[in-house]
Amino acid sequence: MSQSVSPLDQAALDRVADQAAAAAQGAADLEELAGLRRQWTGDQSAIAQANKAIKSLPGADKAQAGKNMGVVKRRVFAAFDARREALEEQAAARQLATQTVDVTLPTGRIPRGARHPLELLQDRIADVFTAMGWMIAEGPELEAEWFNFDALNFGPDHPARQMQDTFFVDPPGSGLVMRTHTSPVQARVLLSHGVPCYVAVPGKVFRTDELDATHTPVFHQVEGLAIDKNLTMADLRGTLDRLADAMFGAGVVTRLRPSFFPFTEPSAELDLLCFVCRAKDPACRTCGGSGWIEWGGCGMVDPNVLVACGVDPTQYQGFAFGMGIERTLMFRGGVQDMHDMVEGDVRFSGNFGVEI
Ligand code: DAH
């Protein structure tokens, strides 16, 4: 070790190299190896001392001594390098064997979010009508009173205009409301597109309701309007049955029940046979024992609406309907509480499938 060795003593240098190589070989781990390397090659080592001694040798011996030292140092460094590589390999192998990855562990991944089920349902509904060759249209949510009411044959004193239903927009007399239904788009499409006309209009509507389990001040409807020559209530019924099948599964039973809307004559409510009790349980909580569930309003378009929109009612007639999309999602998806639809919790949306 630190015994001094002459750089010209080949045999002694070989012995030092043998000892150093043996020491490296015996190192149990990388830390011990690093210590031994310092000991055998550091400033105080026999090798370093012999190296230093070269400069005090007679000139003629220097070359030989330098060559000797080169050989010794290469051997010793090679021995330490080889051992380091071997120990590093062992350490890596040990790590691989002990560190297993459990691919079933939950990750901290941030969920990607989901489109809202009401948006998805509006797309599905639009698909049903597109497949029948209908247009899809949209209209403004901030609407002229004239489109929301007058064009649709609401008299000036109709109760739907009163404050309890409608969000009027400042200043008073602005003539603007937040639309209370999607029906004004009927008039917009008739005026811009003309007849014949087959159009479905999904969208947001607004009413001054408090949020509770079954109401929300902002909700969604899909409006339908078909104007052509020779359309009858049978066409209305067939179209709505097609929509009901697409929404609730083939074979769902529907009925039309007489009703009133200013913009249709005759008017009807479309009811669905209660899919919980099928009209067999007078105590059913879903249908209230009536056996039927109200889904939306419909009827044959009132001639006054056609006239207001520049259509000749002696040539053209047709039907219209309006369904609540929240109600549709409640029946389709078993959603019990409107709060779930407006709170925006991704755990609710995720249940309906994550689609982009
Ligand atoms: N607009 C009506 C409402 O919000 C629903 C409706 C009823 C739409 C009959 C129609 C219809 O197109 O013909 O209650």
Give a topology summary.
Layout: H1 10-26, H2 30-41, H3 46-53, H4 59-98, H5 117-131, E1 135-136, E2 142-144, H6 145-148, E3 176-178, H7 184-193, E4 197-206, E5 218-228, H8 233-248, E6 254-261, E7 264-273, E8 292-301, H9 303-308, E9 317-324, H10 325-333, H11 338-342, H12 346-350
Parallel strand pairs: 1-4
Antiparallel strand pairs: 2-3, 4-5, 5-9, 6-7, 7-8, 8-9
Helix pairs in contact: 1-2, 1-4, 2-4, 5-8
Bound molecules: 3,4-dihydroxyphenylalanine.
Structure summarized in a few sentences:
The chain has helices at residues 10-26, 30-41, 46-53, 59-98, 117-131, 145-148, 184-193, 233-248, 303-308, 325-333, 338-342, 346-350, and strands at residues 135-136, 142-144, 176-178, 197-206, 218-228, 254-261, 264-273, 292-301, 317-324.
Keywords:
356 residues; alpha+beta; BirA Bifunctional Protein, domain 2; two-stranded antiparallel ribbon; binds 3,4-dihydroxyphenylalanine
